Structure formats: structure tokens, C-alpha cells
Amino acid sequence: MYQPALAGKEKALGLDHTSTLGTVNSIGNLYKDQGKPKEAEEMYQRALAGYEKALGPDHMSTLNIVNNLSLLFSNQGKLKEAEAMYQRALAGYMKALGPDHISTLNTINNLGNLYYDQGKLKAAGKMYQRSLAGYEKALGPDHTCTLNTVNNLGNLYSDQGKPKEAKAMYQRALAGYEKALGPVHARTRRIAEMLNALSVVDRK
Question: SMART domains, per this entry (predicted)?
Fold first, then answer.
């Protein structure tokens, strides 16, 4: 469905029309979901170049493609490239939307995840704390985005050898997930398992 739509738009509107580029981005998303990162990157890079030309580097459509590339690179383990894209997306979202917008906060949290994967735990903690404060302000303390960051902090503290702080984060996340998702949801059960593991360590 996408391919004939893309061909039609290219013929009727041109290669660099924003509607054409939107379809290019959609095909990139499809390839990413199909596990075809090379093809997805080609589509994203084409869409990015087109949006930069048509709308400028700081337009939301451009920044959304930058964010898509960030996630793609991160999933591929291309952490250096992912960090560059995240930083660009963050700067753009900060300028266009402000520090408390969900897109900004999501990018901050994703940067925290990236730093965590790189073993930069101190930097990851700063990003998680920053995104947590923003999520609490924008969405409230019991929203799943807030709770996901609380869980991230629990994992971070556990890796840093801070069981007391980790336990406090996991308990908060567990209570929130039980309320928001129910006691048998996979996230809820996973947090309960982490808490049990910490309790076993404490008893030892």
C-alpha cells in the first residue's frame, strides 16, 4: 500500500514534498518494525534530508525523524550515532516545545537509557532525575511514563550498589503499576521479582 502511494506522490507532488516525505517516513517505520534496520535507515535519512530542505532543521517534522533515527541507532547498538541524534533532537525539542513537553522528556529519558547502556551511570542518573521531575509535573506521579523512569532509577541504583535507594524506587514503581496496570501485568510482576531479589540479598 505504501509503495504505490509513494510512487503516486512522487509523480504528482515531487520527491521533496512534505506529503511524499511523510510516506517515506512511514515506510521507514514499517521497515524498522519488520527488523530491516538498513532499509529503515535509508528511508529515515531520505526523509530527514527532505524535511531539512523543505522545513528547516528545527521543524517538528524534522525533529521527529531525528528521534526515529536515534531509536533505530540505539536498537542497533550504534550508541555513538544514537547519542548524537538524541542530543540534536533534545536541543530542538527544548527550543521548539520547552523543557516540560512530553517529547522533550521522552528524549531525556531515552538519553538516560543510552548512558545506562554505555555504563555511564552518573550521567544516566542525571537524565533519569531530570525526566522524572518533568513527568511528575506534566503527567503526575502515577502515570506509567513516570513509573517507568522510577523503575529505571531502581535499576540504576541496584547497579550502583545502592540497595536501599533501589528498593525505595522499586516499591514506588510496584505500587504505581499495581494501581495503573493491575497486579498480574508483566511490568508489575517484573518489579515484584526485583524487589524479592533485593530482599534475598538483604537477608544474606
Answer: TPR (SM00028)
Q: Indicate the pTM of the whole model.
A: 0.86
Mean pLDDT of 112-130: 96
Return d(Cα 110, Cα 198) in angstroms, integer. Answer: 26
Domain count, the chain: 1
CB 135 within 8 A of CB 111: no
Mutual orientation of helices 60-75 and 18-33 as an angle, nearest 10°?
20
Tell me which long-range contacts 177-181 makes (C-beta under 8 A, separation of at least 24). 177/144, 177/147, 179/142, 180/142, 180/143, 180/144, 180/147, 181/144
Q: What is the pLDDT of residues 2-49, one digit of tens each?
A: 888 999 998 999 898 999 999 999 999 999 999 999 999 999 999 999
